[in-house]
Amino acid sequence: MIYLVGGGPGDPDLLTVKALRVLRSADVVLYDRLISAEVLACVNPRAEFVDVGKEEGQQCEVQRRIVPLLIEYSRRYRSVVRLKSGDPMVFARGGEELAELIEAGCDVEVVPGISSALAAPELAGIPLTYRGVARSFAIVTGHGREGVLQDWSAYAGVDTLIVLMGVGHRRAIAEALIRAGRPADQPVAFIERASTPTERRVYGTLAEAGSLDVEAPAVWVIGEVVALAAGARTEAAARSRVGG
Q1: How sure is the predictor about 244, in pLDDT bands with cuts at 50, 70 and 90?
Q2: pTM score > 0.85 for this model?
Q3: Is 151 a catalytic residue?
Q4: Pairing state of beta strands 218-222 and 80-84?
Q5: Marked catalytic residue, from 18, 27, 54, 159
Q6: 51 is catalytic
Q7: What is the pLDDT of residues 146-203, one digit of tens each?
Q8: Is 165 a catalytic residue?
Q9: Which domains does the chain possess?
């Protein structure tokens, strides 16, 4: 059996019970670059560990090798785990790998994980929906194919936007959303390395997003709900005192 397992945002306490059980009984684990050391420590210590993480510019080349590796290992081992950060079916190419493995005749099971798109805002105290403030949210990738960004006007009217892999293009994305009608003074938050000991939160406005000091990986939240977080309120109060 090949398991496509979601490793969550990084904190091993946020693994699902099933994911933990599968990891503890794995014979081989092919893991992504963003899988934390703490999550890897939950894997059967006798398992074979295979790093298939992708650095910038290597995505397509490495991805082409992953499914053949999974098929090869499935012929040698009883339990093969493809371990992805977050949820395997949310901007993690899990759907593509699932389709290829099924086409190859493999037995595959998906083990959902907690996506950082949901975990990061919630850990920062940012509700994605809130009565009277936000009735909808959208999860969007900020990493376009071949460097071409999408039409951001389609998301101008969504109450809450969660942008994954958008740090590198944050200035262009923010400018595109403002041109499409999103308020320039709308609050935003970047949550770096959510759920890990080095988690960091950066707050500002949409107009300021391009100049904020942010490092990847970070989940970017855009919307009025950001102002509901205690950290955002503290930041706003500090700005008010400086302005006064």
Answers
A1: very low
A2: yes
A3: no
A4: unpaired
A5: 54
A6: no
A7: 555 678 999 999 999 999 999 999 999 999 999 999 999 999 999 999 999 999 999 9
A8: yes
A9: 2-111 (3.40.1010.10), 116-243 (3.30.950.10)
